[in-house]
Amino acid sequence: MKAALMKPAAPIRRIHPIAGAIALLTVASFWLATVAAEIWGSAATVAAVKTAIPWGFLLLVPALAATGGSGMALAQGGQAREGQAGGARSGLAARKRRRMAIIAANGMLVLIPSALFLAARAGAGRFDTGFVLVQAIELVAGAVNLTLLCLNLRDGIRMARGRKT
Q1: Percentages (nearest 5) of helix, strand, coil residues in the chain
Q2: In angstroms, what CA-CA distances link 126 with 55, 56, 89, 153?
Q3: Which of 9, 52, 112, 130 is deepest in the core (most CB within 10 A)?
Q4: How far apart are CA 161 and CA 165, in angstroms?
Q5: How many CB atoms are closer than 10 A to CB 47?
Q6: CB atoms within 10 A of CB 14
Q7: How far is the C-alpha of 50 from the C-alpha of 57, rounded, in Å?
Q8: How many helices (H) does the chain have, and how many strands (E)?
Q9: Residue 77 CA to its chain's centroid (Å)
Q10: Residue 128 gets which letter from DSSP?
Q11: What is the pLDDT of residues 5-55, one digit of tens each?
Q12: Each residue's pLDDT tens digit, 79-91
């Protein structure tokens, strides 16, 4: 019975990397589309990208929630036991958990409000100093989240390798 409690169901082990990949690719697509539109696009292209990004939250937010929830279940379920690579209370799992807290705070406090502001401004054709300033902040915060998600992916791969040996 104890072994059954320690090992999460196989679907959670499948959901976690899929949801994480969807979140990572979605954040990357937001960031890259913004940069590409600014460098090579017209005002209409920038407006289209900035007004489309909030619709992408319909994919991103559930993917991040599934990633965080499944990651917590994996850590609590003994997939990353203490003393192994990425132990539940220290090591890789703890680092991933700390990064996810930063990713969530950055998203809720900076990225979502910025995206909504930029979508409204772009939709109205207002590409003024406020737009440029908020977009610069959004690009930096997005790069931080993208980096943290990549670090979590790297550590997740390390943890999975540790389970297989």
Answers
A1: 85, 0, 15
A2: 20, 22, 48, 37
A3: 112
A4: 7
A5: 21
A6: 11
A7: 12
A8: 6, 0
A9: 22
A10: S
A11: 555 567 888 999 999 999 999 999 999 999 999 999 999 999 999 999 999
A12: 444 445 444 445 8
Query: Please, are residues 159 and 80 in contact by the beta-carbon 8 Å criterion?
Result: yes
Do 82 and 49 touch, CB atoms closer than 8 A?
Answer: no
Is residue 101 classed as helix, strand or coil in its secondary structure?
A: helix
Coil, helix or strand at residue 41: coil
Contact 27, 64 (CB under 8 A): no
In the block, residue with structure tokens 């930096």? 140
Here the tokens at position 85 are 């690579």
E strand segments, the chain? none
CA distances from 163 to 20, 66, 81, 115, 132 (A): 18, 21, 10, 39, 46
Res 76: pLDDT: 83
pLDDT band per the 50, 70, 90 thresholds, residue 112:
very high
Tokens of 88: 């539940």
pLDDT tens digits for range 113-157:
999 999 999 999 999 999 999 999 999 999 999 999 999 999 999
